[in-house]
Amino acid sequence: MNDKIAKYIEKLNDQQKEVALHGAGPALCLAVPGSGKTTTITARLGCLVDYWNIMPERICGITFTNKAAKVMRDKAVKLLGDRANNIRLATFHALGVKILRLWSNMIGRNQDFSVLDDDDAEGLFRKAMRKAGFNNVSDKSPEFIDAWNCVKLAKTNYWNIRDVKDNLFKVKYIDLVDLYENELTASNSFDFNDLLGKQLVLFDKYPECSFAIENGVDVLQVDEVQDINRVQFELIKRYVGKKQNLLAVGDLDQAIYSWRGADRKFAESFPETFQNTKLFKIETNYRSTPEILASAKNLISFNHRKYPINLMTPNEKGVDPQIGFFPSKDDEAKWIANSIKDIMEKYKRNASDFAILYRANYLSRVLEQELRKLSIHYKVVGGISFYDREEIKTAISYLELLCNDKNSTALERIVAHPKRGLGEKNLLAVEDYMRSNDKGAIQSLNECDLKSNAKHRADELYSIYTHAKSMNGLFIKCEHVLSASGFLEYLKQRDIAEERNYEGKSRFDNVIEFLRFVKDYEMTSSPDLSSLLQQISLLTSFDESSDNGYVTLSTMHGAKGLEWPAVFVCGLTDGVCPHKKSITPEAIEEERRLLFVSMTRAERRLYLTSPVGRNDNAELPSRFLKETGLLKRKEEVFQG
Q: Which residue in 36, 66, 470, 601 is deepest, having the highest Cβ count within 10 Å?
């Protein structure tokens, strides 16, 4: 082992060292919040390469966000140098894109397939519903919502809908699955869930593909294993194969995503699934004060836990957490905003040292109002992401047709922004021509028989795209399409027309910023448009950088993985946390874990507040407040 890695290992505590030095065989590592988990598993990557002599390209590390993958790679580069760049560090979805590109022809796509976001996937599913004879297919239609949720749930859990015996899938929805799949195939597209589920389809249908992946991976490492769903669990088993060289890392007390298909029972079942699994525990928290951890430990002890884990810290004593009760949400918000202002002024703290967490988005309104009154800058985590903005999604659609001109969803979007006189009937005629003649959208615009005005506008688009394809340079092509199509001018005029609209002022600038991103990507990463678009499809709001000069406002779910010196958790009433829809014992336990996660985001100061009210509509304080043990000490409770 080289000196750099040896010194790195020496700084770890005994529990961390055990994990870092683990070599072959299956292992499950349970790590408490703030325990240096990323540092530990990065150290293990160094040991695998330098001590166990595993070739970097035969190591695969799976994370749940692109940001986490980048952080781990940056740390690994410091240990291993350029060798670390050969380690496959990616999210499940990013890895899925690479695997599906290898064998896309085996499942009805070519290598330039598009990855549809939720809005575009819904649009394609809506089209399938129309073809199936459904009349009301608006996004607010109960029937559409029911059908779409059923299909998404089936994909997340890798169910064959035709085999489902209960009433979850009504008979009238079954044929929609095939129609939707046909639309995806015809558009040379996958939806986001397909990036996982289609791997299993591929591996089941062509075992040689599964064997190729298994044969190419000597060691698999999976982070945040408490958050995996059934498809991800099945993929882990396929990736690791008979070698069983797997390290799964996570914290079962931070399992808070069952609503999107995650199930901590998969992680709990690892010792039964993978024989002779070693169980590691990393129980030292380096983030929070003993007082904060004591209250969090009291809370989570009320849950049933298959693998109980201790929670300790070497940190010095700090300020006791406080619980506050207020007559109303307004009073609660005023007190929080004033407290932040007082602490900032008294102790010279930055706004970025504070976070306000809440169970539901609607609770942010009054908080924003009070922060604005005091001129405290804030940022809402989970607000509209850059790539979710209408103008950016439309710009991406323009570029999609340059790369994958069978993407009918992209065609529908660009002919509507700006409107081009290609109504629904003309658009359907173009799409029918595409399918009947197996041709792309651009060529079909030129060849399809349309009425004179529509034909003229279609020919304009055909000319723009034909010229763009002959141009050299990624940025030049993209800029030409967005400019010559009239899209940039359309945004500029729209901004002018809506100059009193706060959101309306930035549409044009947003697309110009997007073009800067394209130019930077071409210069630093790749001149390939397909790679650019697939990279964009994997971006999430959590990957975007935040300004350090802002108080963070976030849902409790959105705060996972983050930390601040001072944290306010507000709105803690029964019906909010725990949520009123959480009525089963399992659901209550998840709500308790959610508060546990929120409390352990705090480094030095923690405030739990409850707007219980003083009238006929008064709410009860959250039952969890009593479970923290803080109500036993009157000095930690105050009335607002």
A: 601
Residues 493 and 430 both lie in one domain: yes
- Is the same domain home to 373 and 393? no
For residues 291 and 432, the model is more confident at: 291
Q: Which tokens in the block code for residue 11? A: 């700084």
Residue in 84, 90, 96, 99 with CA at minimum distance from that of residue 54: 84
User: Distance between CA 234 and CA 393 in Å, rounded?
Assistant: 32
CA distance 89 to 268: 24
User: In 10 A of CB 587, how many CB atoms?
Assistant: 15
Domain-embedded: residue 201: no
Residue-wise pLDDT for 69-102, tens only, equals 999 999 999 999 999 999 999 999 999 999 999 9
Sequence length of the chain is 640
* C-alpha–C-alpha distance, residues 288 and 601, integer Å: 8
Is residue 542 pLDDT above 60, yes or no?
A: no
Span 549-591, pLDDT tens digits? 899 999 999 999 999 999 999 999 999 999 988 989 999 999 9
d(Cα 462, Cα 180) in Å, to the nearest integer?
A: 28
Residue 108 included in any domain? no
CA distance 571 to 328: 10
380 and 396 together in one domain: no
Tell me the CB-side half-sphere exposure of residue 350, using CA atoms within 13 A: 9
User: 34 and 168 share a domain?
Assistant: no
Q: What's the CATH code of the domain at 425?
A: 1.10.486.10
> What residues contact residue 88 under an 8 Å CB cut-off, 6+ apart?
57, 59, 60, 61, 95, 217
Does 369 share its domain with 303? yes
Q: Residue 570 sits in which domain range?
A: 290-384+546-639
Based on the domain organization, do 297 and 248 belong to the same domain?
Answer: no
Give the pLDDT confidence of 439-469 residue by residue, as tens digits.
Answer: 888 888 888 888 777 888 888 888 999 999 9
Tell whether 395 and 512 lie within a shared domain: yes
Q: Please report, for the domain that includes residue 53, its CATH number.
A: 3.40.50.300
pTM, whole model, 2 decimals?
0.81
**H-helix segments, 30-134:** 37-50, 66-80, 92-102, 118-131
- The beta strands (E) that lie in 331-432 are given as 354-358, 378-380
Whether 342 maps to a domain, the answer reads yes
In a shared domain, residues 391 and 380: no
Contacts of 617 (CB under 8 A, 6+ apart): none
Compute the distance between CA of residue 541 and CA of residue 543 in angstroms, rounded to an integer: 5
Domain termination site, one of 218, 251, 282: 282
Amino acid symbol at 370: E
What's the confidence (pLDDT) of residue 343?
95
Q: How many domains is the chain partitioned into structurally?
A: 4
* Dist. CA 46–CA 4, nearest whole Å: 10
Give the span between the Cα atoms of 494 and 499, in whole angstroms: 8
Q: Which string of DSSP letters, residue by residue, matches 267-322?
A: HHTHHHHSTT-EEEEE-B-SSS-HHHHHHHHHHHTTS--SS----B--PPP-PPPE
Buried-exposed string 546-559: b where 16+ CB fall within 10 A, e elsewhere: eeeebbbbbbbbbb
- Contact, 362 vs 369, CB < 8 A? no
E strand intervals along 541-580: 551-555, 564-569
Would 318 be classed as within a structural domain? yes
Backbone angles phi and psi of 358, in degrees to 5: -145, 160
Percent of the chain with pLDDT over 70: 91
Final residue belonging to a domain, choices 187, 221, 246: 187
What distance in Å separates the CA atoms of residue 317 and residue 605, rounded to the nearest whole number?
A: 11
Range from 24-38, 188-202, 367-381, 419-433 carrying the lowest mean pLDDT: 419-433
